[in-house]
Amino acid sequence: MLPSRIFFDDFMDDFHKEKQTGMKMDIYEKDDKYVVEVDAPGYKKDDIKISCENGYLTIEATKKQEEKEDRKYLHRERTFVGKETRQVYVGEIDEESIDAEFKDGTLVITLDKEEKSKETKYIDIK
């Protein structure tokens, strides 16, 4: 008889697999920029859309199944059809200066931090 701990570990692994996304993300600061690196294996550049609104950076990747008429599959695991979305709050950034590059399955997005005014702004009292 197997210990219950092994069964429980396997059960939890299966539960977590459904929540995992194929797009893993790292975000770091470099000088006056934020850099977002996203692993997007199996996607092409045209499959990915990036948007930024109200301080939220959204990355959407959509993949369609390519059917090959000359193949009759006996076993198939390398299929994914659907959409993955990752969204992260990046705060105040200069939305006009967002730069993105996709190479070898990795998407690198560079965002300039927006300079906050260092001038003191006085408010009139009515």
Structural description of this entry:
This protein is mostly beta strands and 126 residues long. The protein has one helix spanning 4-19; strands at 24-30, 33-39, 48-53, 56-63, 82-89, 99-103, 106-112. The protein has one domain (20-112): Immunoglobulin-like (Sandwich). The strands form two sheets. It has a four-stranded antiparallel beta sheet, with no helix packed on it. A hairpin with a 2-residue loop joins β1 and β2 (33-39). The relative contact order is 0.21.
Brief characterization of the structure:
With 126 residues, the chain is mainly β. It has one helix and seven strands; from the N terminus they run H-E-E-E-E-E-E-E. The chain has a single domain, classed as Immunoglobulin-like (Sandwich).
Secondary structure layout:
Elements: H1 4-19, E1 24-30, E2 33-39, E3 48-53, E4 56-63, E5 82-89, E6 99-103, E7 106-112
Antiparallel strand pairs: 1-2, 2-7, 3-4, 4-5, 6-7
What are the salient characteristics of this protein?
1 helix; elongated; mainly beta; 126 residues; Immunoglobulin-like
- Unreliable stretches (pLDDT < 50, length at least 5) are 4-8, 10-19
- The side-by-side strand order for the widest beta sheet comes to 1-2-7-6
Computed CA radius of gyration, to the nearest angstrom: 22 Å
Task: Let me know the largest β-sheet.
Answer: 4 strands, antiparallel
Just name the CATH architecture.
Sandwich
The coarse overall form would be elongated
How big a fraction of the residues is strand?
Answer: 35-45%
- CATH class assignment: Mainly Beta
Kindly state the mean pLDDT as a whole number?
77
CATH fold-level name? Immunoglobulin-like
The tally of structural domains comes to 1
Helical residue percent? Answer: 10-25%
Number of alpha- plus pi-helical segments: 1
Please tally the β strands and state the result: 7
Distance between the termini: 80 Å
Q: Helix- and strand-based class?
A: mainly beta
Give the topology string: H per helix, E per strand: HEEEEEEE
